[in-house]
Description:
The chain is mostly helical. 68% of the residues lie in helices and 0% in strands.
Amino acid sequence: MENRVLSKAEWLSKAEAYCARSEHCAADVRRKLYEWGTPSDLFDEIEESLRRNDFLNDARFCAAYVHDKVAFQSWGRIKIQAGLAALGLPEAEIRRAIDDLDEPAYRANLRALAKTRRADAPEKRMRFLLQRGFTYSEIEHLCS
């Protein structure tokens, strides 16, 4: 069976379907286009079309990322910020999403994680929480 070469419209349609399933950032889309074997000269054009048609939206992706990392992985602000920065997202969007995180859920996660490490020495518990991305000021009263 011969491999058929896809047209620009077919590559775009494939990328739109990928973005419609869940939130993705431009780095995710570019990685996927590369994996699919999309000609690299189409990357910018496809990304621009996805942004224009609201399949790619940095603010929406950042908000979803922050929500998921707090809700499902109990990450702290620092680790979330580093994860978003590694994806090449704009600093303003990262800051806005972190400022809007669900503070009660965030605090509950911090308390729950500290409680699971209650038997550890205070220094060890503090290192664990710092590695999870919580700031020193957020955890100092829990580890004393």
